[in-house]
From TrEMBL:
Stored InterPro entries: Citrate_synth-like_lrg_a-sub, Citrate_synth-like_sm_a-sub, Citrate_synthase, Citrate_synthase_AS, Citrate_synthase_bac-typ, Citrate_synthase_sf, Citrate_synthase_typ-I
Pathway: Carbohydrate metabolism; tricarboxylic acid cycle; isocitrate from oxaloacetate: step 1/2
Gene Ontology MF annotations: citrate synthase activity
Keywords for this protein: Acyltransferase, Transferase, Tricarboxylic acid cycle
Protein origin, superkingdom: Bacteria
One GO-annotated biological process of the protein: tricarboxylic acid cycle
GO CC, alphabetical: cytoplasm
Protein name: Citrate synthase
Gene: GLTA
Length: 422
């Protein structure tokens, strides 16, 4: 391990700090004792250059366009495993199922746990018609802490696992109920004979007493399974950092997860896929793409191209590449797409990825660019795009909470500030 020397040019004092070497990614300077050593703070708005924790769950290489969960490339996971396997990977300290029998058994456990307390159903039923499902979902998860208050004081691994499996199992049910409440439809309970991902589609689509207008196809289940998997974890993004920050206070884990849901709802984060669809509708026709590309390049125009660019990725987002292929596969398999919006999106990508303006600024399609088109093809309402992101991300958040709470000495998150007031 090396060191780096910091020199205060005003006083001539020199301070030495240790260099940390992660298994992947850039080296880090250990500034944890910077204030105690120098009497100064570091200043990093947005924490773009600051690591707030040690984690082994996921890693994002923005330059290479790589995403791994516990060392497994996302491409490998999508090709070889199901979302329930990734859930186990993220909350099981990197353990992934060696056999199909174990995977199926875990999925049956999640389905069994997917039913919610009738008292919570009544709370959801009281939400007003027209409320956004993300508001309902965040409130429901927070309320869930009142039904399972014992999770605030966990000691053994089995207790942590019960907490995580319970919320992961119930999140699709809560999301489906949140949607049906928002449009005034009667709730449809989980079907114990269906799988974890299929059950969510069933609860969205079915009429009371379990009747479906049309059967849920394996193609649809597989596509949604992939979407969930791509969203499962992504380093210390805004919502994950929020979950960790809130959990560091010792609050009930479901309260911390509810805070993550609230952070995810923002248009700059999980809500971006809704904005992409709004923008494609606004552009309206493929012949208008060049005009809107020009607007995006005009520094005096407030228009910004949604679904392009990422805070971390400076090359093509690997999740976007997988979704682009998924879009093509679904189209070939006869899943009905909105061809007008598909043509607009493909034309935008074609033009932007050959334009020096976008290339020089490392602006490539991100995970939100094609996800909305695919979700629409799966007959999922636009207001449910972000809740679907949340269902996918819940296992990652739970893994992050488990990692944090099982540390020997959890330190409450307490950033500093640069005070500029009177």
């Amino acid at each position: 391990m090396g060191t780096v020397t910091f020199t205060n040019n005003e006083t001539g004092e020199k301070f030495e700090f240790e260099i940390l070497n992660p298994t992947r990614g850039p080296q880090l300077v250990d500034f944890s004792k910077f204030y105690e050593t120098t009497g100064m703070f570091t200043f990093d708005p947005g924490y773009g250059s600051t690591a707030n924790c040690k984690s082994e769950i996921s890693f994002v290489d923005g330059k290479k366009g790589e995403l791994v969960y516990y060392g497994h490339p996302i491409e490998e996971l999508v090709e070889k495993y199901k979302f329930v396997d990734v859930i186990k990977l993220l909350i099981g300290n990197g353990y992934i199922f060696p056999t199909k029998e174990e995977s199926d058994q875990f999925e049956r456990e999640l389905v069994r746990r997917s039913y919610i307390h009738e008292g919570l159903r009544k709370i959801i039923d009281a939400f007003p018609d027209g409320a956004h499902p993300m508001a309902n979902l965040s409130s429901s998860v927070s309320a869930l802490s009142t039904f399972y208050y014992d999770h605030i004081d966990m000691e053994y691994e089995a207790e942590y696992q019960t907490m995580a499996r319970r919320i992961i199992a119930k999140t699709p049910t809560l999301a489906a109920f949140a949607y049906r409440s928002s449009v005034g439809s009667p709730f449809v309970y989980p079907d114990a004979d269906r799988g974890y991902v299929e059950n969510f589609l069933y609860m969205l689509r079915a009429y009371p007493h379990g009747k479906l207008k049309e059967e849920i196809s394996p193609i649809e289940v597989s596509a949604l399974d992939t979407i969930f998997m791509l969203h499962a974890d992504h380093g210390q993004n805004a919502s994950t950092a929020t979950v960790r920050n809130v959990a560091s206070t010792g609050v009930h884990p479901y309260a911390a997860l509810s805070a993550g849901l609230s952070a995810l709802w923002g248009k700059a984060h999980g809500g971006a896929n809704e904005s992409v669809m709004d923008q494609l509708e606004m552009i309206g026709d493929v012949k208008n793409v060049d005009r809107y590309i020009a607007k995006a390049k005009d520094k005096n125009d407030s228009f910004r191209l949604m679904g392009f660019g990422h805070r971390v990725y400076k090359s093509y987002d690997p999740r976007a590449r997988i979704l682009r292929k998924l879009k093509d596969d679904l189209d070939q398999k006869g899943v009905k797409m909105n061809q007008r919006l598909v043509e607009i999106a493909e034309k935008i990508e074609e033009v932007a990825t050959q334009d020096e303006y976008f290339l020089s600024r490392s602006l490539y399609p991100n995970v939100d660019f094609y996800s909305g088109i695919i979700l629409t093809a799966l007959k999922i309402p636009k207001s449910m795009f972000t809740p679907i992101f949340a269902i996918g991300r819940m296992p990652g958040w739970c893994g992050q909470v488990l990692e944090l709470l099982q540390e020997p000495n959890v330190k409450i998150t307490r950033p500093r500030q640069m005070y500029v007031g009177k």
